[in-house]
Amino acid sequence: MTAYPLKRLVIAFATLVLASMVVFAVLEILPGDPARLMLGMNASADQVELLRTQMGLNAPLVLRYLHWAGGLLSLDFGRSYTYSVPVIDLVRERLAVSLPLALIALALSTIIAIPVGLYSASRRGRAGDTVAMGAAQLGVAVPNFWFALMLIYVFAVWLRLVPAGGFPGWGAGAWPALKSLLLPAVALALPQAAILARVTRSALIEVLNEDYIRTARAKGLPYRAVLWRHALRNAMIPVLTILGLQFAFLLAGTIIIENVFYLPGLGRLVFQAITQRDLIVVESVVMLLVAAVIAVNLLVDLSYAVVDPRLRTRS
Amino acid sequence: MRLWKTILAAAVLALAAGTSAFAARTDLVIGIPLEPPHLDPTAGAAAAIKEVLYANVFEGLTRIGPNGEVLPDLAESWTISDDGKVYTFKLHTGVKFHDGADFSADDVKFSLDRARADNSVNAQKGLFAAIDKVDVIDPATVKVTLKNPQGSFLYNMGWGDAVMVSPKSADTNKENPVGTGPFKFQNWAKGSSITLVKSDHYWGAPAFLDKVEFRIVPDAAANVPALLSGDIQAFPFFDPDSLAQVKDDPRFKVVIGSTEGETILSINNKKPPFDKLQVRQAISYALDRKAIIDGASAGLGLPIGSHMSPANKDYVDLTGLYPHNVDKAKELLKEAGLENGFKATLKLPPPGYARLGGEIIASELRDVGINLEIIPVEWAQWLDQVFTKKDYDLTIVSHTEPNDIDIYSRKDYYFNYDNPTFDKVIADLNLTSDEAKRKELLGEAQKILADDAVVGFLYELPKVGVWDAKLQGLWENAPIQANDLTKVKWSE
After folding, report:
1. What pLDDT digit, counting tens, does each position of A274-296 carry?
2. Residue B197: enclosing H or E segment and its boundaries?
3. Would you place residue B24 in the very low, low, confident or very high pLDDT band (cuts 50, 70, 90)?
4. How many CB atoms lie within 10 A of CB B456?
5. Is A81 inside any structural domain?
6. Do A119 and A198 fall within a single domain?
7. End-to-end CA distance of chain A
8. Domain final residue, candidates A19, A39, A73
9. Looking at residue A174, which CATH number applies to its domain?
């Protein structure tokens, strides 16, 4: 009962250490000097060297890695080169946008996808299934930035129900803040929902062909009860896997949508930090994301054990 | 009775709403494409810093006006000694920083000494290179002694990098900028917006606007819906490719102005075969500026023949020196012994003018036998490989600093251009303050660069501004990096 979670935890930590080395090394070989970038084309080489020293960039490679990784262990993520504020403050500000956005989008996509998947699977091959899966196909195919622009033109420019972009901050009140996250959440949720619906449908169809489903039907259980109690529960593992992946993507992979709606999210922070060579921000945020992805995967792994009792007893 | 009360209340409300609609607005939301990395104009090269703070929050001894002219600012007047080496500035009195500290000659000395100190990280430290010493005469008088006469000194003091800061707040300006301007800093929601509000204790004519928000809109595709929905009322730097969607809309004003951005095809002058004059001239003949402007800049932007803005009073038109002529280009390549053409690389930084212009230039050079391999690079890579290490053949970039023709005389600059005659002209120019004589020298400098075909001179980057038609007082041109809001107001 405890061996399974413990083993997962050890693997998770080892992954984190390995990731920190890879992230640090990759950014180290990335061409570009943050000091030169800050000082621009009119500054002399001496001045750039001076700023490099001030930023601590001239220390030996191994020392800098140990300093940074040691800081991470004590939850000190360092200071941004460009913003000159603690990285953790930047991340906290950005998470106030990205986390609610990811959660709303995830909730929306689940609410849409699971019923559609159920519906399609139970009407496999019939007209309803064809229409639903055709719509899902379209949802996967339409680029989300285009879809986002269409949403903006309809709901912000034409109907003027929500702002066209920007984020007023939670300080401006819960409703204005939520309102500015609505369109981006829909734009993000729809393609995700389309994928999730297809996965749900195929997982269900596979399960519905199993012998125990026929047995359940044969012993007289109504179709609906079979679908909900036996089929959906057994089809949950691929669905949970996809959900986990989607959450990780929604947290930081939404840079395009963040740009279209000019939201100050985590994706844009990383993107901006990369272009400005604010390496400490890139490194620390990437590590946080790695940690988040590992944590989500851990949760997903553990939840397999909840939906599938065999995983509990096997280990 | 109850009904009457209700009707009366409704009427009063309607009246109140009606009158407030007639009073002029005093708030403004401006869209800017890039977020400043921090808010200290004296410690960074990013144009975005000055485009938020210059003239609004921070002021200098002098300032640059909407057409590039030098105007008095915190210095109300000055005298210049006969040898051109001593500037005595008379300061405005009763000026306060936004934190309440008094502004005086001591702050001038502090600001200038800080900018030119050994440990200074001022991105334009060269502006202060001629200063020998700064002396405080009395609280309202300051004397600046130069090592040698410098014709551009008053202009230099008007740059955003030369603004006046207080010793109390200089170290924290990056996060909480404190200046003497008509607006004071209120809030920076990182990644989202920067808000300024009107300063109550401004020494000069107060601003018309009470509150200004600079909202960061990185994606050009978002500019149009933001304008149409009314969320943002002005984009001083609009994406030229999106103009079609707003240019016929009477609610908006489209203003095409000039910048100080000479967009050039930079050439590595020391790298064979570009060290041969004929090769560089052949490139100049091969370029069709009109096609480049049409393709890379939506047909906007004026062609240039040397390194000077056509809006500059000292501009000389040299665009006729190398007209587009494929045969002539081929002939010159043959003279250089390259009748079979050659291969080279073209490194392109991210802006649209470079990426789009690069495709066109590559195809134009292919017509004369020069095959270019296009290498897209990020800014950080560009600065590292091209600018610092000079590891490049050709590149496209816009040199946006104003009056920067002297870069061609800098030792070790990335053009790798070395011409003692040109250096002499620039050295003379630096020592000259007589306007007529300066004009002559600047004309000569432009001519030498064009004759040498040092780089491929393309066009002056346009400033495309789009804003609400009722908005007045925004700058049409960008003679310096700024969004000066001191005269901006809503018409009633």
Report:
1. 888 888 899 998 898 888 888 88
2. strand B193-198
3. confident
4. 24
5. no
6. yes
7. 7
8. A73
9. 1.10.3720.10
List the single best residue of A83, A88, A144, A180 to mutate versus B (max B Cβ within 10 A): A83
Tokens of A8: 């997962």
A297 in the same domain as A237: yes
Establish if A120 belongs to a structural domain.
Answer: yes
Chain B contact for A5, CB < 8 A? no
Instruction: Determine the residue type at B61.
Output: L
Q: How many domains does chain A have?
A: 2
Amino acid (1-letter code) at residue A296: V
Backbone angles phi, psi at B49, to 5 degrees: -65, -50
Cα radius of gyration (chain A): 24
Q: Which of residues 214-243 of B touch A (CB under 8 A)?
A: 215-219, 221-222, 225-226, 228-231
Contacts of B381 in chain A (CB under 8 A): 31-32
| CA separation for the pair A207, A202 (Å, rounded) | 9
Domain boundary among A13, A44, A73: A73
In a domain, residue A272? The reply is: yes
Question: A164, B226 in Cβ contact below 8 A?
Answer: yes
Cβ within 8 Å, pair B218-A261: no
Domain identity same for A143 and A233: yes
Q: Are residues A69 and A134 in the same domain?
A: no
Closest-approach residue (CA) in chain B for A157:
B229
Specify whether the CB–CB gap between B477 and B311 falls below 8 A.
yes
Q: Does A245 touch chain B (CB under 8 A)?
A: no
pLDDT, one tens digit per residue, over B341-392 is 999 999 999 998 999 999 999 999 999 999 999 999 998 899 999 999 999 9
Q: Which residues partner with B62 through β-bridges? A: B72
Q: Average the pLDDT over each of A302-306, B172-176, B383-387, B433-437 and give the range with the smallest value.
A: A302-306
- My answer on whether A196 and A109 are in the same domain is yes
Q: Tell whether omega for the bond before B273 is within 30 degrees of 0, i.e. cis.
A: yes
- Chain A contact for B171, CB < 8 A? no
Tokens 């095809």 correspond to B265
Do B476 and B49 meet the contact criterion of CB atoms below 8 Å apart?
A: no
In a domain, A78, yes or no: no
Q: Is B385 on the interface with A (CB under 8 A)?
A: yes
Contact B123 A40 (CB under 8 A): yes
What confidence category does residue B401 fall into, taking pLDDT thresholds of 50, 70 and 90?
Answer: confident
Mutate which of A27, A36, A38, A42 to test chain B, going by most B C-beta atoms within 10 A?
Answer: A42
**Is the pLDDT reported for residue A253 higher than 80?**
no
Cα–Cα distance for residue pair B52/B50, rounded to 1 Å: 5
Dihedral pair phi/psi, residue B183, rounded to 5°: -120, 145
Interface test with A, best of B34, B127, B190, B414 (most A CBs within 10 A): B190
ipTM score above 0.90: no
Cβ distance B221 to A145 less than 8 Å, yes or no, reads yes
- Which residue segment(s) compose the domain that A137 sits in? 91-313
The owner of tokens 């002219």 is B69
pLDDT digits (tens, 9 = 90+) for B72-95: 999 999 999 999 999 999 999 999
Tokens found for residue A238: 């691929």
Flag whether residue A131 sits within 8 Å of chain B, measured between CB atoms: no
Which of A34, A163, A167 is facing B192, going by the closest CB pair? A167
Tell me, yes or no, whether A100 and A63 share the same domain. Answer: no
Residues A191 and A272 in one domain: yes
- The verdict on B174 touching A (C-beta cutoff 8 Å) is yes
Contact B125 A47 (CB under 8 A): yes
- Residue B371 parent element (H or E): strand B370-376
Q: Clarify whether residues A220 and A280 are in a common domain.
A: yes
Cα(B431)–Cα(B459) distance, rounded to whole angstroms? Answer: 29
Choosing among B50, B119, B121, B392, which should be mutated to test the A contact, i.e. which has the most A CBs within 10 A? B121
Give A66 to chain B, closest Cα distance, Å: 25
